[in-house]
Amino acid sequence: MPAAVPNGSMTMTMLPPAGTALPISTFLPATGREESYVENILRMNLGKVATLYMTYENNSDWNAKIFKGVLEAAGRDHIIISDPATGMRYLLLMVNLDYITFDEPLNYNLPFGSANNPVTRR
């Protein structure tokens, strides 16, 4: 629920920025299940090699760029990958992410982190 902030004689409702994912512990009220967000799926697949397709608007040098590396971390607004050949690490912003591919099956468990509901597609 958005926070109500007093502002003189009126109350303003503060909302998170557009495109902001909710915390991992967010549940769907009617079902009691956790919601599925990209960062949660990425966290279930840390250590796997991923190919990330990114778009950078208004960039004349490179509008689109492809990154490939080992998935090290994922947050609400970022992904960290590393290149095993060079040791270089990349901090990539989710706002630029178009899509991600993996060369192996994904771990996908809902609710997040639950061992009693494994779903792996091959």
UniProtKB/TrEMBL annotation:
Keywords: Capsid protein, Virion
Pfam families (alphabetical): Spore_GerQ
InterPro entries given in the database record: Spore_coat_GerQ
Source organism, top-level taxon: Bacteria
NCBIfam families registered for this protein in UniProt: spore_gerQ (TIGR02728)
Protein name: Spore coat protein GerQ
Species assigned in the record: Cohnella rhizosphaerae
